TrEMBL record:
Stretches assigned to the ABC transporter domain: 4-233
UniProt similarity note: Belongs to the ABC transporter superfamily.
PROSITE patterns (alphabetical): ABC_TRANSPORTER_2
Coiled-coil segments: none
Xref: InterPro entries: AAA+_ATPase, ABC_transporter-like_ATP-bd, MacB-like_ATP-bd, P-loop_NTPase
Domain of life: Bacteria
Keywords attached to this entry: ATP-binding, Nucleotide-binding, Transport
GO molecular function, one term: ATP binding
Name of this chain's protein: ABC transporter ATP-binding protein
Length: 233
């Protein structure tokens, strides 16, 4: 069973001029896939992520995550679905400035009411693997951008979500930090089989993906496979 299925999704923003931000988009992600989405500004990438994340409703079509239809849930169930099944990573990190790195990482577990000792153990183990152990007790303003994004990766993955959605995760980072962050994604993808969907403008970041989908004017128009699945266009 696919982790994610986007089925014939369209999104029209009505206004003085109506915009077809998504035009009959369909694709599926299998467990453990690391897939990129690339396309020019205004091509529908954010809308697509928002529709998958249930932040935005498709005008038509459906999204299926692990056999569930999140858009058919009520608001409360939808919020729970997002918390349980999804992990989010953003360009601007979106860490909470008043919490330490460790407190940020365990936030999804705190919301689930996990025991403190268990949370500390999980965050330490993840922080070691992501090489941010030495900054666990610092605040986000005291660490580098690369460390902030690895903190965000730890937070997005600590509760083992079905699907991680990343929006331009290297958009704010220099080359060295981008490399560290993409290697962190790659490691989590390989070792935990975390399924990742990543929007990016960055060819270097896209080179870590198994597969890249290209979108333009709200339509998927091309797909490139890498590595074991190598196929020409
Ligand atoms: P990016 O190119 O980084 O994805 P955009 O500048 O396209 O970001 O959009 C940023 C935010 O503004 C998105 O959440 C999007 O939904 C919203 N947005 C984009 N275009 C419009 C618009 N014409 N009217 C209202 N909101 C918009
Ligand atoms: P991208 O993320 O690829 O930059 P978006 O998904 O943000 O693209 O936008 C796709 C199209 O939909 C653009 O033409 C944008 O202006 C429009 N759009 C996005 N969000 C809104 C909105 N909330 N209201 C109206 N138009 C929007």
């Amino acid at each position: 069973m696919a982790v994610l299925e986007v089925r014939e999704c369209s999104k029209i923003y009505e206004g003085t001029i109506s915009t077809r931000a998504l035009d009959n988009v369909s694709f599926a992600l299998e467990r453990g896939e690391f897939v990129g989405i690339m396309g020019p500004s205004g091509s529908g990438k954010t809308t697509l992520l928002n529709v998958i994340a249930t932040i935005d409703e498709p005008t038509s079509g459906d999204v299926v995550v692990e056999g569930q239809h999140p858009h058919k849930l009520d608001l409360e169930e939808m919020a729970l679905f997002r918390r349980r099944e999804l992990g989010f990573i953003f360009q601007h990190f979106n860490l909470l400035d008043t919490l330490t790195v460790e407190e940020n990482i365990v936030l999804p577990l705190t919301l689930d009411g996990a025991p403190v000792a268990e949370m500390k153990k999980s965050s330490l183990e993840l922080a070691r693997r992501l090489d941010i152990e030495s900054v666990l007790h610092k605040f986000p303003q005291e660490i580098s951008g690369g460390q902030m994004q690895r903190t965000a990766i730890a937070r997005a993955m600590i509760h083992h979500p079905s699907l991680v959605l990343a929006d331009e995760p290297t958009g704010n980072l220099d080359s060295k930090a981008s490399k560290d962050v993409m290697e962190a994604f790659g490691m989590m993808n390989r070792e935990e089989r975390t399924t990742i969907l990543m929007v990016t403008h960055d060819a270097f970041a896209a080179s870590f993906c198994h597969r890249v989908l290209f979108i333009k004017d709200g339509r998927l128009y091309n797909e490139i496979y890498r590595g074991e699945n190598r196929q020409a266009f």
